[in-house]
Amino acid sequence: MKVTIDKSGCIGCGLCEGTCPEVFHVADDGLAEVHAQPTPAEEAAVAEAVDGCPSNVISTEE
Predict the structure, then answer these.
(1) Fewer Cβ in 10 A, N or C end of the chain?
(2) Are 46 and 1 within 8 A, CB to CB?
(3) What is the extent of the structural domain holding 28?
(4) CATH number at residue 41
């Protein structure tokens, strides 16, 4: 799975980081970013972050 974030629409709420800190973190600019691609064990948490993102800016592809 490959994960990306469209930072132009991010509101910096931190939900993704709270859900899967191994993959996401809020950068110094206050916006979320992907700091590591997920392992297979982290894919369920990434899917939860995608579903919970209020701005719908997290994308995944296989």
Answers:
(1) C
(2) yes
(3) 2-61
(4) 3.30.70.20
b or e along 26-42 (b: 16 or more beta carbons within 10 Å of the residue's beta carbon)?
beeeeebbbeeebeeeb
User: How is residue 36 written in tokens?
Assistant: 């590591």
- Give the contacts of 33 (CB within 8 A, at least 6 positions apart): 5, 7, 24, 25, 26, 27
If one counts the domains in the chain, the total is: 1
Q: How far apart are CA 26 and CA 19, in angstroms?
A: 12
Please write the tens of the pLDDT for every residue from 28-61.
999 999 999 999 999 999 999 999 999 999 999 9
CA distance 43 to 54: 19
